[in-house]
Amino acid sequence: MVVKPNPSSESTLTDRYQTTIPEPVRKALGLGKRDKIRYVIQPDGKVIISRADQKEEDPILGEFLNFIAQDIQKNPQHLQTIKPELVNRIQSLVADVDIDLDAPLSDEDE
Hints:
Layout: H1 23-29, E1 37-41, E2 47-51, H2 59-74, H3 84-94
Antiparallel strand pairs: 1-2
């Protein structure tokens, strides 16, 4: 579906700083319920809104993972199973750790 550009849309903030994304904006971005939105603040104060589900890939991590995949393919004889003792040790170290991978990082962790 092609959405015709609408020069402007507006919504109102509630007392809790919440708002409803106007229908033309939802359609233009292809947003559905529970989708995430990204806001980018420009130097001139304008804000760009977009879907947040487009994952930004880390080029260094991608190259490293490609290197590992190629090495495994070329040298499968180097693969070894993890010893049960190491698995038990790792499990004991993280047994009481509760982490939310979706929680935002603190300023210290950035």
